[in-house]
TrEMBL record:
Record CDD domains: YdjC_like_3 (cd10807)
Taxonomy of the source species: Bacteria, Pseudomonadati, Pseudomonadota, Betaproteobacteria, Burkholderiales
A Gene Ontology biological process term: carbohydrate metabolic process
Full protein name: ChbG/HpnK family deacetylase
SUPFAM superfamilies (UniProt xref): Glycoside hydrolase/deacetylase
GO molecular function: deacetylase activity; hydrolase activity; metal ion binding
InterPro entries per UniProt: Glyco_hydro/deAcase_b/a-brl, YdjC-like
Keywords tagged on the record: Carbohydrate metabolism, Hydrolase, Magnesium, Metal-binding
Gene3D superfamilies according to UniProt: Glycoside hydrolase/deacetylase
Annotated organism of origin: Delftia lacustris
Obligatory cofactor(s): Mg(2+)
Superkingdom of origin organism: Bacteria
Length: 287
């Protein structure tokens, strides 16, 4: 599917959108879902948790999925991976807005996680985002830009694109989407655009992880697809089975079931959307 229905006898191209599976390397069931959905043509990208003790092993599966799958860094400040107590997102947000995040310590966190990505894959990330969107918090985002400039230079064409959580279309009406945008999404998008960093054009995929069936998740998907524009990004969190001990472990299996289904293919067709495959950089600009 790559065209919309005829309008006055002419066909218009479908909207090309990006679907990114977050949390790669969190658990083997997540990694398996990413691999299967990529082979099915249902994903554009995955963002990788290089802080995970499973990262090195999980990274070995990724080269075979290139170039159809873009690979990014899922910057982590809150997930302990069962090895240490996790830092709650509320506490991290409070520290960020109190000015307690940033400086040399945050630059070091960016450096270590980017080093782990590059060492395992032999490449720079195609893009950068954050677990629970921590990349957009005050102090964290400033350290990100500093590290990007030092590593990759000032040319926008050489920079990884960065996730903007500015809601696409009218999706800001969802309370959770609005909160994420208020907690750094809109501000980060404006600042990174001024600084010449490439960004996606609108964001979707935000919900309360409260749908027990694929059909329920599909209703959310239909609402997101209706609002996306070319170059918009949706996040998802699939796993091939429930992930024990994970806060959204059951919901991951629900998402996977829907994303691999004929119902998802039909939703894309009805919304005149196409899931981007291959290099994504041309979809994103600094404007």
């Amino acid at each position: 599917m790559n065209t919309m229905p005829a309008i006055n006898g002419e066909k218009s191209p479908a909207r090309t959108v990006v679907l990114c599976a977050d949390d790669y390397a969190l658990h083997p069931l997540v990694d398996e879902a990413v691999e299967q959905l990529t082979l099915q043509g249902r994903l554009s990208a995955t963002s990788c948790m290089t802080t995970s003790p499973h990262w090195r092993q999980a990274a070995r599966r990724l080269p075979a999925l290139r170039p159809r799958l873009s690979l990014g860094l899922h910057f982590n400040l809150t997930e302990g991976h069962g090895l240490q107590p996790a830092a709650g997102i509320g506490a991290v947000i409070a520290r960020a807005y109190a000015g307690a995040l940033g400086g040399a310590a945050m630059r070091d966190a960016w450096r270590r996680q980017l080093d782990a990505f590059e060492d395992a894959l032999g490449m720079a990330p195609d893009f950068i985002d954050g677990h629970q969107h921590v990349h957009q918090l005050p102090g964290v985002r400033a350290a990100l830009v500093q590290e990007l400039r030092q590593r990759y230079g000032d040319n926008a064409d050489d920079l990884p694109w960065v996730r903007s959580t500015t809601p696409a279309g009218q999706l800001w009406r969802d309370p959770k989407a609005a909160i994420i945008a208020l907690l750094g999404g809109w501000t980060t998008t404006r600042r990174l655009r001024r600084q010449g960093v490439p960004l996606n054009h609108g964001f979707g995929g935000v919900y309360a992880f409260d749908q027990p069936t694929p059909e329920g998740y599909g209703r959310h998907m239909a609402q997101w697809l209706a609002q996306l524009q070319p170059g918009s990004l949706m996040m998802c969190h699939p796993a091939t089975a429930p992930v024990q001990g994970d806060a959204i472990g059951a919901q991951r299996a629900v998402e996977y079931a829907y994303l691999r289904s004929d119902a998802f293919a039909q939703a894309l067709e009805q919304a005149h959307c196409h899931i981007a495959q291959g290099p994504l950089t041309p979809l994103f600009t600094t404007n």
